[in-house]
Specification:
It is a single chain. The protein is an all-alpha fold. 64% of the residues lie in helices and 0% in strands. The protein contains six helices and no strands. Helix 1 packs antiparallel against helix 2. The termini are far apart. InterPro entries: DUF1468.
Length: 162
């Protein structure tokens, strides 16, 4: 059987592998049952669904004919580095790195870092738009996680909020 769409085949394979990994990882937790779900139930179901989607995409890539085989292009290194870096920086801002003396900078500062760093992943950067986006995201995140869900994590830098 010949691969008729390289993009779909490799994307489907990625979904399949990640779905199996999540489902397998979920089995280390108590699964429970539909009426009384354990902590592993939701990741197990999501993993199985992701694996099923991956299998379907792989099947389509092997069966449905495409014009040029949809070859995979080169790696987009710039977006990859900036998006992963933005998420790492958000984690560092939220929790700090106490072993090397970096304090927690909190949710609000973390969202600004996340937004500004990830904005560099695109082709053009408009700092005014990024400031507006970061402000809107910070307000919505504060309302959703702190006010509505009452989650307990730092909102402001530890040297300001105590």
């Amino acid at each position: 059987m010949r691969i008729k769409s390289q993009k779909d085949f490799w994307a489907g394979l990625m979904f399949l592998v990640m779905g199996i990994a999540f489902a397998w990882g979920a089995t280390t937790y108590n699964i429970g049952e539909g009426a009384r779900m354990g902590p592993g139930y939701f990741p197990l179901v999501l993993g199985v669904l992701l694996a099923a989607i991956g299998a379907f995409v792989i099947f389509e890539a092997l069966v449905v004919e495409t014009e040029d085989g949809e070859p995979i292009g080169s790696w987009a290194w710039k977006p990859l580095v900036f998006i992963i870096g933005a998420n790492v920086m958000f984690g560092v801002c939220l929790g700090g790195l106490p072993k090397i003396g970096i304090p927690s900078l909190g949710l609000i500062v973390g969202i600004y870092f996340l937004t500004f760093i990830s904005a560099y992943a695109g082709e053009e950067f408009n700092w005014k738009e990024v400031v507006v986006l970061a402000t809107v995201l910070a307000i919505i995140s504060y309302l959703a996680f702190i006010v509505l869900l009452k989650l307990q994590f730092p909102v402001w830098p530890s040297f300001i909020g105590g």
